[in-house]
Model the fold of this input.
Amino acid sequence: MLKSKKAVVTGSTSGIGLAIARQLARNGADIVINGFGDADEIERTRAAIEAEFGVRAVYLNADLTRGDDTRRFIEEAVKALGGIDILVNNAGIQHTALIEDFPVDRWDAIIALNLSAVFHGTAAALPHMKKQRWGRIINIASAHGQVASEQKSAYVAAKHGVMGLTKVTALETAGQGVTCNAICPGWVRTALVERQIEALAQKNGSDIETAARELLAEKQPSLEFVTPDQLGQAAVFLCSDAASQMTGAHITMDGGWTAR
Done:
């Protein structure tokens, strides 16, 4: 379905981003993966995508907390793949603290990566997409782009900002063959969430699986984690012809979290 398409997925050396990159590659897209981690493991991941799906996979890193580096990264990806058709803005970090205790450097880093990098990446990719009159921008937001939780001021602010930026991008590209949508996951058992489970287990003196169930019960009525592969399949849908008139929208995959 996506044969000959060129896709860039930020924060894709593990977790949700890697699952999305793999699903896009499974459907024929050449891929740029991006993120931090062990160099040998990243190379194994990159090579495995090429071997399994018969596409081209390239690894490029950048400091996405810096706007100029983010824009340079997109241009390097365009050169590496010979274009850009799909941009998935997925990279993100988290920190929890009360507003009055929230470290300023953590606030700045979360806003820079979770929100500003989406802006800079989108701004760099759009001229290429508009010129070819085809493009798909997919922003990985969150249930926290719709509702709030205590002690997550920076993350919630950033994800609400991503939702607004998604809508503005959709309006500015309407009728030009480019769409921009958001995917809003609830709890996904990534390394980031695993750390929250471990903290909850330590706080309550419980084991990890009990803490995981407690975490789900607090927010997610399905009592099941969303899987990275489900999010990858949603991204593939947003790149399909079926979604060509879907723009400025969000797909919520949160087990009923925001239905309350």
Notes: The radius of gyration is 18 Å. Residues 6-186+226-252 form a domain with the Rossmann fold fold (CATH 3.40.50.720).
